[in-house]
From TrEMBL:
Pfam families: MMR_HSR1, MMR_HSR1_Xtn, TGS. GO terms for biological process: positive regulation of microtubule polymerization. This is Developmentally-regulated GTP-binding protein 1. Keywords: Cytoplasm, GTP-binding, Hydrolase, Magnesium, Metal-binding, Nucleotide-binding, Nucleus. Residues 291-367 form the TGS domain. One of its GO terms (cellular component) is nucleus. CDD domains: DRG, TGS_DRG1. Residues 66-291 form the OBG-type G domain.
Amino acid sequence: WPCLVLRVAECSWRLMARTQKNKATAHHLGLLKARLAKLRRELITPKGGGGGGPGEGFDVAKTGDARIGFVGFPSVGKSTLLSNLAGVYSEVAAYEFTTLTTVPGVIRYKGAKIQLLDLPGIIEGAKDGKGRGRQVIAVARTCNLILIVLDVLKPLGHKKIIENELEGFGIRLNSKPPNIGFKKKDKGGINLTATCPQTELDTETVKSILAEYKIHNADVTLRSDVTADDLIDVVEGNRVYIPCIYVLNKIDQISLEELDIIYKVPHCVPISAHHRWNFDDLLEKIWDYLKLVRIYTKPKGQLPDYSSPVVLPYSRTTVEDFCMKIHKNLIKEFKYALVWGSSVKHNPQKVGKDHTLEDEDVIQIVKK
């Protein structure tokens, strides 16, 4: 079955490569892209149960405030980087494919506990089930940040292949979800509304893409100039949008002029894992990309505890989220909170459970 799916996917991909891109073929290309996305999904989640578990050492329990996955080709220095950052021993050797299972490590940085995962080396074709790529990328989907570790001597070829593999598994790097409203309904056909001019999508293309998913009644709102791929991402509904840093390792093997050029590339940090060069810069960038919010607690009549903050993700930073992080019963006994810091006008300020906290605020919970 996977071989058949692969064959059909290859045919669709070849057809797309041969088709010229213009207004007349946009409808046909949209249909092929939708077909390809469906086939890829079937490859990732094959029909029928049975057939073994996830594989030894792949499903690692999530611990700490954030999870970072190290993704890269075999022998680019992922294991050396992890062992030097976290003091974890992940087998290191000069030949390829040394790491065969997921090796976890933990670092503490600015009060946050961050889990690091050294994932086995990715090979080209991982998204099509080659090697152990499917399990590797499945773990990568659960990360809050992905570090793509590249060899500075051959970065661009590797970068493109890894990006393609991750894209094939529905991981979108350093991008935001498309601004598309999509709602299925029982009757009334396809109702398309565009709030701005569209260069690629028209009613016919949208209808043909949705027909491929057997959707014939839906409201679609395009709030920005979007592509067929964006619409397919929204319809599939299983895409994850993860920030990514490209770590260019082995800078001890290049000149200073080359290093200056690398520094100008967006989302990149040049390092030497072996010599531990530029780790401060890497950790600072990791912190910026994780966007974690630290909240300090203050028991009544005592000084704030600055040693162990409660760390929240930037998308969930209300007083209610803070209470839930400590214990779910705390919100039932919640009366109000006193907050000191940049999120309030007065220090302290009395706030309710819907108040949004900011990094390094101090909070005191008053119970009923």
